[in-house]
Design brief:
Low-confidence stretches: none
Strand order of the largest sheet: 3-4-7-8
Helix content: 40-55%
Strand content: 5-15%
Structural class: alpha+beta
Largest sheet: 4 strands, mixed
Length: 453
C-alpha cells in the first residue's frame, strides 16, 4: 500500500481567499510547489482570457483557481477520512494514504496552461495537459524537485492522476469528473469575479453529501437536489458567461491576430519578443513555453500596433482596445449564404480571411454515460439507503431534460461597419444595405422572393 508523507510545516500557512475563506497549507511539499517559479507563473495567466472584456472583474488568474482546487480536494479528503475511512483492503472506502497524491494533483491540474490557452493551442499545436505532465516530470523544473522530496517516483504518480491513468478511480475522479473539485471551484470562482449569480450553487451542501465508493465518488440521496443545483448552475454559466458572444468575438480577433503574425513573421519585418518568436518559428522548448504569459503576449500586441502591415496593426488595435466584431446566429440551413456575405465584406474593403469567422459554442450540460472522451464513465451516481447506486438523471426530471443535449449556438462574425446606418450618403451604403437584408432578429436568413400574382 502506498503511503506518501510530506514534512509538515512548523506553522500552518493560511491564505485568504474570497471564494473559500481560507486555504490551508500544512505540508512542505505543497508550500514548495506554491513557491516554484512554474507555479508563480500562473499569477500572470488570466483564468478566463478575453472574458474580462465582457465582465470587467474577471481578471482572476489560474494561480488562485489551482489553489482553490487544492483546497476543495483537501476538504474532500478530510470528509472522507472522517466519515468513510477504509478499514480493510478493497472495501470501497477512502484510503487516506492517497491524500498527498490527490492534493498535489489538484494543485497542479492546470499547471500546463499557457496564455489564451485554447486559442494558442489551436494555432501553435500545443497541448496544456501534456505540457502540464511534462512540467511535473521534467527533472529540471522546481515543481519536479519539490515532488521528488516525497519519493523518486512521486512526480510520475501525480502526472498519472492528471492523465487519468492512476489505478484508483476515487483519486482520479476527485479532480476529473462531472462533479469534481476543478469544476466546483471554477464555477464558484468565475461567478464571483464576473459578478453573476449563475454559478453560485450550494457548495457546502454538496460537500456534506459527497462520499467514496468502489468505482469512484458519489453523493448520498439526501443531497440529490444540491447536486441538481450544481448541474443547472454549470449550464447557466456556460450559456451566460463562457459562451457570451462578445467574449467569443474577442477570441476570434485574437486568433486572427496571431494567425496574421505568423504570416508577417515570415517576411522578416515583424517586431517580436524572443520567447514568442520560437513559436512563430515552430521550434520551441518547454523553457520557451514557461516564459510565455499574458504580459508577454500583450507586449507583442503593443509592438504590433506600429506594424507596417495594416491588417496586423488593425487587429492588434481591435484586441487591445476592445473593438469586437459583430455577429449573427447561423445554422446548417443558412450557411450557404456565407460566401455571399463574405463577398460583400470583401467589396467593403475587409479581407474575409481575417475579418470574418464562424464560431461554434456548444456544451453538454450533463451526460449520464460517456464511454470515451474527457469525462469517460463520469456519470453522477446517487447512493440509496441500501447502498445501491442510481444515476442522477433517473432521479431528477430537470437533469433528465438536460441529459445528452447540446446547448449553445453557432455564429458568424464580421466587422460592425457592415451594420452601419448613416444619414449622410456614404460610398459603401449600398453594400451595407444589401448585407443587412440577410439579417433578421439577430440571425442569418434567406431573402424572401417577391410574391407572384
Amino acid at each position: 500500500m502506498l503511503n506518501f508523507q510530506s514534512e509538515k510545516l512548523k506553522d500552518e500557512v493560511l491564505l485568504r481567499d474570497p471564494v473559500h475563506g481560507y486555504i490551508h497549507i500544512e505540508d512542505k511539499v505543497i508550500f514548495d510547489i506554491l513557491q516554484s517559479k512554474e507555479f508563480q507563473r500562473m499569477r500572470r495567466i488570466k483564468q478566463l482570457g478575453p472574458i474580462s472584456y465582457v465582465f470587467p472583474g474577471a481578471t482572476h488568474t489560474r494561480f488562485e483557481h489551482n489553489l482553490g482546487v487544492y483546497e476543495l480536494t483537501r476538504r474532500i479528503c478530510n470528509i472522507f477520512s472522517k466519515n468513510y475511512p477504509s478499514r480493510e483492503p478493497d472495501d470501497g472506502l477512502w484510503d487516506d494514504s492517497n491524500r498527498l497524491l490527490v492534493e498535489c494533483a489538484g494543485l497542479l491540474h492546470d499547471i500546463g496552461h499557457g496564455p489564451y490557452s485554447h486559442t494558442f493551442e489551436h494555432l501553435f499545436g500545443t497541448n496544456h495537459e501534456k505540457i502540464g505532465q511534462q512540467i511535473i516530470t521534467d527533472s529540471h523544473t522546481e515543481i519536479n524537485q519539490a515532488l521528488r522530496q516525497v519519493s523518486p517516483n512521486f512526480p510520475e504518480l501525480v502526472a498519472s492522476v492528471i492523465a487519468k491513468t492512476y489505478p484508483n478511480p476515487q483519486v482520479v475522479k476527485m479532480i476529473s469528473s462531472q462533479a469534481d473539485a476543478d469544476r466546483m471551484d471554477y464555477l464558484q470562482r468565475d461567478a464571483y469575479f464576473t459578478g453573476v449569480n449563475y454559478g453560485q450553487f450550494d457548495l457546502s451542501r454538496v460537500l456534506r453529501v459527497i462520499r467514496p465508493y468502489q468505482d469512484g465518488i458519489c453523493f448520498t440521496n439526501n443531497g440529490m437536489h444540491a447536486v441538481e443545483d450544481y448541474i443547472v448552475s454549470r449550464y447557466q454559466m456556460y450559456q451566460q458567461v463562457y459562451f457570451h458572444r462578445v467574449g467569443r468575438s474577442m477570441e476570434v480577433i485574437l486568433h486572427h491576430l496571431l494567425q496574421r503574425a505568423k504570416v508577417v513573421y515570415k517576411t522578416g519585418t515583424l517586431q517580436v519578443t524572443p520567447s514568442l518568436a520560437k513559436f512563430l518559428e515552430g521550434n520551441w522548448t518547454l523553457d520557451d513555453y514557461l516564459k510565455l504569459d499574458d504580459g508577454v503576449m500583450e507586449t507583442n500586441f503593443s509592438l504590433w500596433l506600429n506594424s507596417s502591415d495594416p491588417i496586423l496593426a488593425d487587429l492588434a488595435s481591435r484586441y487591445l482596445f476592445r473593438k469586437p466584431l459583430a455577429s449573427i446566429r447561423i445554422d446548417e440551413d443558412t450557411k450557404g449564404l456565407l460566401p455571399k456575405l463574405k463577398d460583400l465584406i470583401k467589396q467593403a474593403g475587409f479581407d474575409p480571411t481575417y475579418y470574418t469567422d464562424t464560431n461554434s459554442a456548444f456544451d453538454e450540460p450533463y451526460d449520464a454515460y460517456k464511454p470515451t472522451g474527457k469525462n469517460a464513465n463520469s456519470q453522477i451516481e446517487i447512493m440509496q439507503d441500501d447502498g445501491s447506486l442510481i444515476e442522477l438523471s433517473q432521479l431528477s426530471p430537470l437533469v433528465k431534460a438536460l441529459n445528452g443535449t447540446f446547448q449553445g449556438d453557432e455564429r458568424f462574425f464580421f466587422p460592425k461597419t457592415m451594420l452601419s446606418q448613416s444619414n449622410e450618403p456614404q460610398i459603401f451604403d449600398p453594400l451595407y444595405e444589401q448585407f443587412q437584408r440577410y439579417i433578421k432578429n439577430g440571425a442569418l436568413h434567406y431573402l424572401r422572393r417577391p410574391h407572384k400574382k
